[in-house]
C-alpha cells in the first residue's frame, strides 16, 4: 500500500515535470518574430524605404501613382520590352509561380509590376501587348526620365541608357533584382539574381515560392 502511494507520487511529479518542460522548451512562435526573421532568402533593407513620388502611365493608358501600390504586396521589376534576355525570362518565370502565390494571398492581394525605363520605345501600346503576353493581371508602366530616375533610385535599383541611341536596337543597362514593396507602398527588400557560370542571372523562383507566402500571410 505504502509502495503504491510512492508510485502515485512519482507519477504525479513526473507528469508535472513533463508539462513544465514542454512549456519552457517549446519552440518559439514564429509568428511573433519580425517578418524579416521569418523569411529565408529575401534580402531585407535595414529600414523600409519610401518611394519617390511618381506619376506614370500604365499599359492601359491610365495614370499610375504611389497610391496604386497601397494595400497590396508588389513584386516590381525594372526593365524594358526590347531587353533580349533577362526581362522576358524573369517575367515568364514569375508567371509560372504567380497563380500559386496569388492563391495564398489572404486579405492583402499580390501584384506584379513591370517598370519600363525605356519610354522612348515602350509606348503604352507596346507595353500592353508585351505585358499581356506574360499575364493579363500584371501591370506595366513607364514615364519620362525625370520621373523614372529618382523612382528607380529610391527602389535601390539603377539603369543607364546607351551612349549611342541612334541605333534603334540600343540596349539599356538595368538592375535584375525583383523588388518587394509592402502594403504601405514602401520598399522593404529584394530577391537578388543568382550568379551562376554559364547561366542567365535572374532571381530564383524557388526562393520566391518559399518567402512570398510568408509575406502574404502577414497581410
UniProtKB/TrEMBL annotation:
Supply the Gene3D superfamilies for this chain: Glutaredoxin
Residues annotated as transmembrane: 6-26
> Does the record carry Transmembrane as a key word?
yes
Chain residues that bind Cu cation: 83, 87, 174
Return the CDD domains for the record: SCO
Keyword Transmembrane included in the entry's annotation: yes
Q: Which cysteines are joined by disulfide bonds?
A: 83-87
Q: Which InterPro entries match?
A: SCO1/SenC (IPR003782), Thioredoxin-like_sf (IPR036249), Thioredoxin_domain (IPR013766)
Record GO terms (molecular function):
metal ion binding
Mind listing the UniProt keywords for this protein, alphabetically? Copper, Disulfide bond, Membrane, Metal-binding, Transmembrane, Transmembrane helix
| Residue ranges of every copy of the Thioredoxin domain listed in the record | 21-217
- Superkingdom assignment: Bacteria
Q: According to its UniProt record, which protein family does this protein belong to?
A: Belongs to the SCO1/2 family.
Q: What is this protein called?
A: Putative secreted protein of SCO1/SenC/PrrC family
Question: Which species is this record about?
Answer: Glaciecola nitratireducens (strain JCM 12485 / KCTC 12276 / FR1064)
